[in-house]
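#struct-pred
JK: can someone run the complex with LMANGFYV? inputs below
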Amino acid sequence: MLTELLTGWIAHQRWFAGKGRPIDKLDIDSDIELSRGLRHLIVSVHQAGTHDRYQILLGCCADDVPDKFRHALIGSGFYDAAHDADLTTTLLEAMAEGRDIGPLRFRHLDDVHIDTSLRSLVLGVEQSNTSLVYGDAYICKLFRRLIPGVNPELEIVNALAARKAAHIAQPYGWIETDLDGEPTTLAMTQEFLANSNDGWALALASVRDLYAWPQESASDAGGDFSSESFRLGTATAEVHHELADAFPTGVMDPPEVRRLMEEYLRRLEQTVAEVPQLAEHAHVAEEAYRRVCEVAHEVPVQRVHGDYHLGQVMRTPTDWVILDFEGEPGQPLAERRALNSPLRDVAGMLRSFDYAARHLLADHPEAQNLLPQAAEWAELNRSSFLAGYSAGGGRLRGEDAVLLRALELAKAVYEVGYEARNRPSWLPIPLAAFQH
Ligand SMILES: Nc1ncnc2c1ncn2[C@@H]1O[C@H](COP(=O)(O)OP(=O)(O)O)[C@@H](O)[C@H]1O
Ligand SMILES: O=P(O)(O)O[C@H]1O[C@H](CO)[C@@H](O[C@H]2O[C@H](CO)[C@@H](O)[C@H](O)[C@H]2O)[C@H](O)[C@H]1O
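RT: done, structure tokens with the ligand placed:
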């Protein structure tokens, strides 16, 4: 039976958020034929009293699934159609034509032309969703876990594109349906940034260079990244300005700041319960949150990126472009759309420099000897990023340092939970954040 096949398959998908917990039941809520051999499913996965919805493109064969789709096999006669370029062409065509197929609405932005002759490939990167790259022109991200409402990424990118903002990838179209009576984004198509590299890959190349020549300082090593960190800081400040212009802004008063710290404390306790290795470090975060409460001042707030790290920024031949304004995938939509301090993004990127510096040490035979280089690389790039952020007009004042430290540790707590669930061998990286 299809539901049984899907239950066995979904638990092993990278994008499945409920890993590590048994699935009690899977229901198919919606099953729409998009074209011959292609069905669009929305399924509900029930786990210990909670339930999450996911979307699946189901390829269906009358006979056995062809060998070329073995890697995408769901079970007898069914496979993940995201991997079948003959079927995914339907998505592009329907978007170009602005079609409705049953309850699914395929839309494109005014004034864009979509070339429907392009064929897709699944992007082979670790991600929370599934992206299809058509030719080298478009990237269509299928949001796997569905949360009722317009996805913040679509909302933000469309608003910034309408203002002709720099540092974003041009949006083309999207797919939506109604979930619980709310228009809900299922997918979004944007310009594919060909000939570009993501910040994580570039940062790792720099770190690798440094570790190959440990006698050099981080600023003298061949692949110095600090001028890129500076430009990234400037681009970040510019995007923050665009967001502040395009959406409402506000001010968090001291009692609200204290409430935010209480919320971070609650998340810390929850994460300690899930990941006992965090317990011995919890006091470091508690102390940082307490300091914020002591010196609490008014904090300007606005729409922010929300899950900002080196994997979310692309270096094109000309500049940095920022992707994935979706917020933290696990948080409720209202929270991801809420106004926040832009320092939260700054903190996210600072953490990411730490990740890049430490990641390659995990299996390195000289790990102990290279620790000072790792720290120097992280420090150099963190301070270049902050200098670029200020140069771009980003607000960074002396009194913000205490909040920034707390936001960094709150991000590290999130990362501890994320790594424990998704990549346990990476857990030492965020845990190290509590040691300095
Ligand atoms: N517009 C784009 N052009 C080129 N590559 C992209 C584009 N959007 C995403 N990518 C690549 O896909 C990766 C994952 O994208 P992201 O939006 O962060 O997905 P997810 O939210 O599923 O993690 C990025 O790190 C980048 O390598
Ligand atoms: O890009 P996503 O929206 O899927 O974000 C999630 O996955 C990220 C990992 O891919 C995770 O980021 C963490 O690992 C990065 C290196 O892989 C590192 O650069 C980030 O600093 C670190 O937070 C992100 O937290 C998670 O939400």
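RT: quick notes.
The mean pLDDT is 94.
The chain has two domains: 2-7+24-191, 197-435.
JK: thanks, will look after standup
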